[in-house]
Amino acid sequence: MVEMDNNSGMIGSWLPPNASSRTLLSSSSTEDFGSRSLPAFLVENGNLGLSWNPGNQKVNVSSKTEGEVGANSFNGLSPQPKSSSIGGLAERMATRKGFNVPKLDTDNIPSTGTISSLEIPSPYLTIPPGLSPTVLLESPALFSDISDQPFLTTGKLEFLEYLSSNTMPVSCSTVFTKSEYNIFEDIFEAFTFKIPLESDSHHSRLVRKLDLPSIEEYVQMEIPSEARNVETGSKNFQYQPEFCIQSDSSITIDGKHTTDNAILHQQILDAVVVSDEQNGAGPRGELSAALGTPAEDGYNWRKYGQKQVKGSECPRSYYKCTHPNCQMKKKVERSPEGRITEIIYKGFHNHLKPSLNRRVGVPSSSPLNDLESDGAEQPDSQASFDENPIKGILQSGNGCQDCLGDGPEATSAASVAAEFCDASNTLQENQDGNHSSPDSIGGSSTMSNDEEDDRETHGSISLGGDGDRDEPESKSRKLDAC
DNA sequence: AGCCTTTGACCAGCG
DNA sequence: TCGCTGGTCAAAGGC
Hints:
With 482 residues, this protein is an alpha+beta fold. Helices cover 29% and strands 8% of the residues.
């Protein structure tokens, strides 16, 4: 079971941001998440109290209903109607363990007026309606290998873009309880994820670590009186302006409301870009510099171009993943000092992350590479992504999370990933007596057998081959991580 | 020999 | 149509 350490892992190394720049609100009671397990917390707190229901679209999630996609479409991001509040880990746990999963509603989400009254600046990260933090928590892409994540830095997150014009005006945000804060602190510490998009737009961007203060710092912050919960007087914690939850009730695209997964995904991706000009010499830059070449994100890249971008001192380098048929690209901008200031990923890998030894010159024809390529080099591999990247991603999680949220854009905090990995694994074994690889997180390790059956029934593709073939890679990578 | 980077040229989108 | 800009190509050279 997961034990969430409030300030575990990299959090302790943060450089706390300027507390004065933050605004705190209060809307519900403060809870001490403490050492409780995250799943338990999720259950107790009802999906963090954040909205799942995107308003006009009634979106209920069922994890096992025949024909519904919750189990095989990115863990609850399915546009299909669902039968309960969340379709991910919390609910699955609840289903299996008899936990009571509170139904979500949007009532506890502060209105736009609340935000505006506090003059919360923009931009900020907005999670589109219909996508709850729990979904993110459960995203198979979220929990990926982070052992060599090059972006685990404390650079200030800036969002250069915001939701596309498809969305309704932003109304956010959600006040975080301390408990929630703890969760997001861990998650967003190095939160990078990748979400598959529509067929013709394999485009992903980083959701990078947010620049968050420690929980202690938040606790010590003065809470404006207007931000205190009138009823409880409790102190809550809110990410401002770096993070908030959009509470829009619907999305309008081309005049039509939608809860389409890809759209939600696109919104997330479009909402998040990274920039760190203010902290170019900060921890992120330092880490990036320390990590050296872009290839040290675990993948093999070939530089195919370099451009001097207008308005920027530093040139932009263009890299392609060297893996055959892999369409993953990335743009890397460096500061004059050579520090990486921005990395933007486009597309996603259709293969497992190469093992460490391959990065340093192991021929691509190595057995391991062949193994990895089995799924990736299927003629229709990419096409399958195109047709249903969500399923592809999820299926790939059956064997190894690295091929889910593969790549740096899909990696996340080590502590979170590892804990969830272990937790889900433990859960799986305890409940079913089945073995699931510790590396199988998100997509499958938290799935019930029925869910896995559903997933396969729905024609998911396999990226990394079957689990048996993925396992050696997973193991080797785990060893590498050690 | 293979893979990489460098770098100028080329192309496409946009105003 | 033209110029600008970003992205990509591909030849050349290095390791």
